[in-house]
Fold this sequence. Notes:
The strands form 5 sheets. The chain has a two-stranded antiparallel sheet with strand order 1-6. The chain has 2 domains: about 1-20 and about 140-230, no CATH class; about 20-135, Homing Intron 3 (I-Ppo) Encoded Endonuclease, Chain A (Alpha-Beta Complex). The longest helix is centred in the middle third of the chain and has 13 residues, at about 90-100. The protein is about 20% helix and about 15% strand. The chain is globular, with a radius of gyration of 19 Å. A hairpin with a 4-residue loop joins strand 2 (about 40-45) and strand 3. It is α+β, with helices and mostly antiparallel strands. The site of one zinc ion (ZN) has 8 residues, from loops.
Amino acid sequence: MNSPVHTESADASAQRFAGFEPDTCFVAHWHRRTRSGYSTHYTKESSRTVNGHRLAFMLLVGSPLGAEMVLHRCGNAACLNLHHLYLGSDGENLRDRLLHKAVYSAPRVPDQDASDLVTRPIPAALSREAPSRGLAFGGCDELKCVHAPWLIATPDGYRQLPGRPLPGDLAGAHRKVFELLIGSLRPLDLVRHSCGDKTCVNPYHLYIAGRQSPDLGNQYDRRKDRPVRGPYKPGAGA
Length: 238
Ligand SMILES: [Zn+2]
Ligand SMILES: [Zn+2]
């Protein structure tokens, strides 16, 4: 489905994606960070912690292969702007470091307010290295759904990163996109698609539709640590 039609409940939701600008960084202030400035995110499906910029890339651009690294053109570890992220190797990483060192000045944040959830520092320089495999962010706008065919299907029809299959409300790519780019989520918050397409990962199409009832929450708590198993196969052991 590729309908740009948004529902009324979508319009009633307060938290929406603020959008990327090509020349300014996108720094989200609700994330936990490492000392180097990277945000960190636990992924239940692989039981691993992943840096925010790498996770954003894996959800909206593609999967790094082998030794490929997700690098910042802007040199700002906290930045999640997909226009500033690209796939490279040690060589590109080193040249970027030299570039950013040469032009270093404290990033300028225009019109910042203490209550801003997202700030947009202006990088001193943006690297122009070519991305590995030509893999680049295709951009996103409110009019078109964004699909990520490198992700796998959850048992209930959403998309998730490769790993053990879990329901969309536990491991859904749409929830990760929301938490990375729109705002923090409480475990019982229901993230819905204004486009009606559960496989879409366009941050413009995501909103909080409400909360699961506490009764359902208990089920959620019991279920969250249990992997979803495939259909019963006779003879597969006790
Ligand atoms: Zn940036
Ligand atoms: Zn959509």
